Structures are given as structure tokens and as C-alpha cells.
UniProtKB/TrEMBL annotation:
Residue stretches in coiled coil: none
Residue ranges of domain Core-binding (CB) in the record: 22-102
Record-annotated Tyr recombinase domain positions: 125-319
UniProt protein name: Tyrosine-type recombinase/integrase
InterPro entries assigned to the protein according to its UniProt record, in alphabetical order: CB, DNA_brk_join_enz, Integrase-like_cat_sf, Integrase_catalytic, Integrase_recombinase_N, Integrase_SAM-like_N, Tyrosine_recombinase_XerCD
BP-aspect Gene Ontology terms: DNA integration; DNA recombination
């Protein structure tokens, strides 16, 4: 019968593969449906930790989990003095799984519902933002006479002037530098495959152009925008930077060299995103525009970067006189 079907309609899966997919448990379907590699990695770790705590071996055993099991796990997390945000995320991971199982009629209810989570700090985020002088110090840290220095300056400017996530930075291609209404924009692929266009800051544009000319791939539209300057393993440079390399070889490196890492507790790649958002808000940007600019699904997340109410210079501390 298959010989009579058009080529495009013929089954590409073998019969055993076809039947194996039909028998896939909904627990595995849920995991396979998570598009973000970062989210998949976090959920995998949370689920592994949860099942290890309960002694679960087979996916089907998840369907016997009750609220009492979740309460016991939450107590265990609290006893380990994990941060409230970490506990909330872990519970959210398991809740996401059980929501899917409910949709598939694999369980009758989500046992995570009704399990109270640690209160969130809705006033201000914990990621530290840099001051203006510290941001300038970081931008000036890479050398100007080497290819790596030119690239790192361009990367730091892209992060500090546009508030990108490091995964978004690493996904940029040369063709993502696009003209819109006569202005160069960054075409950014964000979380959940959402696209946004950000006008390119003049300083970042200049540094990116200097880097691309020095690197020699300015007109290779399909090339990653930021590439390795050397590769001791395979020798190929035609690949995107690894997000971990951005942290260890750029942020950590220049953070140590400038002394920022010692001055700013918790300094990391996300600090540059927090710096961009905080600076934009302090200089009069509309918070709804900043929400779109950062790619936040909810403005409440953007408010975590709004530190205008906690400016040190406006503290009563500096009104005290003896």
C-alpha cells in the first residue's frame, strides 16, 4: 500500500518507532514539549531532586503523589536553607508537570496547588546593578589593540546598552543587524521564541562595527555575530559563543580586573541587564516600554529593576545631623 502513496505522504518512522511514540507516558511528553534548553535543564534538575526525595523510580509513580508529599519536600527545602526564590522555582517546576498531567487526564488534580510558597520580594530584585562610573569602567576594561579586546568591548556594550540575556546575545547573527526606518536595530530572539527589535545604541554600533571589520565576517550574514577568537579543540571559529564562556571569560575576567567583583556582591552577567534596566528607568524611560525592551511577559518582573524609590542620595540617612 505504501508504494501507492506519494513520497511526501509515506511514513518516515519505522513501525516500532511509531508504536513507541504512541506509548510515551505523558510525563515524558511534558518534558519533551519544553522548548527552552535552559528551562529544560532547570526543570530536569528539579524533577530529579523531587523524585529522588520521594524514591520514585518509574514515571507512572508520579500519579500517586499527594499534597502531603509536596509539603514534606517543601519542608526539606526549607531545612536546607535554600533561598525563597529557589524554593518557589522548584515548586513551580513540579506544578508545571502536574498541570500537564491534569490536561492529559493522567491525574485528577495538581497536588502542588494549596502548598504555600515562600513570599516573594516584589519590591526590588536581588541582582545588583552597577553605578554609572562602574559601567564605564567595565566598558573601558578590554584592550583596544587585540581582536579579543575589540570583541569583548562590543559584547559589554551590547549587554549594557540593550539589557540582553546572555543566551540572546549568543544567538545573534550578523543578519540580526537590520535597518528599520533608517535606524540600525538588533533583531533579538527571546524566551518562548518571542521576537523583539531594539534600536542599536550608537556606542554599541561603533564597537560592533570595529569588531566585525577586525574579525573579517562583517558580510557573512549567516555567521554568529560574536564568535570565538580561537578554538584549541576543533580549530573552527564559525560558531556562536557559549553562554558560560561569556560569564567566565568576559564578565568574571573584567569584573576581577576592574575590582568590580570585589565591590559588588553577586556581580554576574545578569547584573548588566539589571544595570541597563535601572539606568533607563532612572533616566525617565516608561516602565511599559522597558518591559517590551527587556522582553518581559509581565510588568511585575520589570518592576524588580525599578530602584528609583531606593536611591541612596534620597535616604533619610543623609538628613540626619548631629
Amino acid at each position: 500500500m505504501t508504494d501507492t502513496l506519494p513520497a511526501l505522504e509515506r511514513r518516515m518512522l519505522s513501525a516500532p518507532e511509531f508504536h513507541a511514540l504512541m506509548a510515551m507516558p505523558p510525563e515524558l511528553e511534558w518534558f519533551a514539549n519544553i522548548r527552552s534548553e535552559k528551562t529544560r535543564r532547570a526543570y530536569r534538575n528539579d524533577l530529579r531532586e523531587f523524585t529522588r526525595f520521594l524514591g520514585i523510580v518509574q514515571p507512572e509513580e508520579l500519579r500517586m503523589v499527594t499534597r502531603a508529599h509536596l509539603l514534606a519536600w517543601r519542608t526539606n527545602l526549607e531545612e536546607r536553607t535554600l533561598a525563597p526564590a529557589t524554593i518557589r522555582r522548584k515548586l513551580a517546576s513540579i506544578s508545571s508537570l502536574f498541570d500537564y498531567l491534569c490536561e492529559q487526564n493522567a491525574v485528577l488534580h495538581n497536588p502542588v496547588l494549596g502548598v504555600k510558597r515562600p513570599a516573594a520580594n516584589n519590591n526590588e530584585g536581588t541582582t545588583p546593578a552597577l553605578g554609572d562610573s562602574q559601567a564605564r569602567m567595565l566598558l573601558d576594561a578590554p584592550p583596544t589593540n587585540t581582536l579579543k579586546g575589540k570583541r569583548d568591548r562590543a559584547i559589554l556594550a551590547t549587554l549594557l546598552y540593550h539589557g540582553l540575556r546572555r543566551e540572546e546575545l549568543c544567538r545573534l547573527l550578523v543578519r540580526d543587524l537590520q535597518q528599520r526606518s533608517g535606524v540600525t536595530h538588533l533583531h533579538v530572539q527571546g524566551k518562548r521564541e518571542k521576537t523583539r527589535y531594539l534600536p542599536l545604541h550608537p556606542m554599541a554600533q561603533r564597537l560592533i562595527e570595529e569588531y566585525l571589520i577586525a574579525a573579517g565576517h562583517r558580510y557573512d550574514q549567516k555567521s554568529p555575530l560574536f564568535r570565538p577568537v580561537k578554538n584549541n579543540t576543533s580549530g573552527t571559529l564559525l560558531k556562536p559563543l557559549d553562554p558560560q564562556a561569556v560569564y567566565s571569560c568576559i564578565i568574571q575576567k573584567y569584573g576581577r580586573e576592574t575590582g568590580i567583583s570585589a565591590m559588588v556582591h553577586g556581580f554576574c552577567v545578569h547584573s548588566l541587564r539589571a544595570t541597563a534596566a535601572t539606568n533607563a528607568l532612572e533616566n525617565g524611560a516608561d516602565i511599559s516600554k522597558v518591559q517590551e525592551w527587556l522582553g518581559h511577559a509581565n510588568v511585575s518582573t520589570t518592576r524588580l529593576y525599578d530602584r528609583r524609590k531606593s536611591r541612596p542620595e534620597e535616604s533619610p540617612t543623609f538628613r540626619v545631623k548631629y
